[in-house]
Amino acid sequence: MKQNFKKIWRIPMLLSGLILFGLLAALLGTGFWYWLAWAALLVPLFVICRKIWKPNSSIKENVIKN
Amino acid sequence: MAQLKSIKKWFWWHRWTSLICTLFLLMLCVTGLPLIFGDEIEGWLNPTHYATLPKDTPMADLDGMVKVAHGRYPKQLVTFIFVDDDEPQVLVNMSPTWNPVDPLRHSLQFDSRTGKLLNDEPPFSQKPASFIDIMLDLHRGLFLDLPGELFLGLMGVLFVISIISGVVLYGPFMKKLDFGTIRSDKSRRLKWLDLHNLLGIATAVWLLVVGTTGVMNELSTPLFGIWQMTDVKAMLSKYQGKPLVKQNELSSVQAAYNTTQKTLPGMQIMSVVYPGNTFGSPYHYLVWTKGNTPLTSQLFSPVLVDAKSGKLAAVVKMPVYLRALELSRPLHFGNYGGTPLKIIWVLFDLVAIVVLISGVYLWVVRRKFYRNYFERLAEAELTEHQSPTIKS
Fold this sequence. Notes:
Number of helices of chain A: 3
Largest interface: A-B, 38 and 41 residues
Helix content of chain A: over 70%
Strand order of the largest sheet of chain B: 4-3-2-1-5-6-7-8
Shape of chain A: flat
Number of helices of chain B: 12
Shape of chain B: elongated
Strand content of chain A: under 5%
Oligomer: heterodimer
Order of helices and strands of chain A: HHH
Largest sheet of chain B: 8 strands, antiparallel
Helix content of chain B: 40-55%
Radius of gyration of chain B: 27 Å
Number of strands of chain B: 8
Distance between the termini of chain B: 17 Å
């Protein structure tokens, strides 16, 4: 059960952390921090695009597993 | 079974809060898009051509500008002066009365370096609303001012509840799926459900931040009202009974500007609200300043300058709820991290639109689908209870 929780929430937590970091970095810093903020905020968008246009090969595995 | 019951409860909240607010949220997302680049679009549609002068040209005398304004409209009141930090302009605002929404209120635009009158704008009611004005009016309050703002604030609260309940539901939905799985080969419903979940969870924090700060912004009128009725009233109580300062008794506004600058050397002056203005003090110039670091440039400090003697009366401390409101602005507008941040805001906004539309789609095709879904969940829970050693 615990492992399942980790599996489900690992990436969402990571993306949420990146967004939070990005929003605050641009608010509290400037220059270098802007670059970090933009990069951090682009990660979730990039992940979305990847998942849509290059769907996981693990779909089939899932179907078999279930 | 308890878990299934709680999932059903969260699901009920997610469905109904979303359904009620979706139409308005879609409108907010669509009107919000051009607003992200509002300044740029406005400058592009109505460009002002400023004289080219060296960058460090000092500001021209404010008293001179006010004199020109009074010369043109001797019977009118100067209500406030806006000093732009973005463009070299100063706006002297005038009105026949202190009514804050007087249809005849108008602005005179001056070049802040030469003090030359650039544009004597027509009264507010006769000024054709610009594209951005219309988008903003709709976005902020459905053209209905305060009632509209409060209504959209309420829709924002529902939106925030729907995001939270959506995040809670994400767990059970993803029990048997890897992150980002999109089952495009099974059915259209499943594909859109997976997409809805992926887009929603990946942008959840952004949606939450922009949602809550949006609600905060919708509350700005009541919050400032509370401040006026409490702190400001207490501050002005010692002046009670004194005659109001008339416009012909005022001390120099430029002197008030200089005094403020001298008292708070690191601060930038944004505007000077004239005594008598509903949003000011009857006895003072209210000078709004802001800091010059990334964070403090979002935090405003008002300074009171005695309008008769020209002496500094107080540097006002803002209450926590107004500080929160001030920080809500950049976090909602996305205008605090350069052009790339604005582009990122547009992209997140577009994702939000897809989440909203897919949510509606999933509701439309709901019935059969969710009955099956809950049946499957119940079955899964049953098997889990019977054979706890088997891992799913």
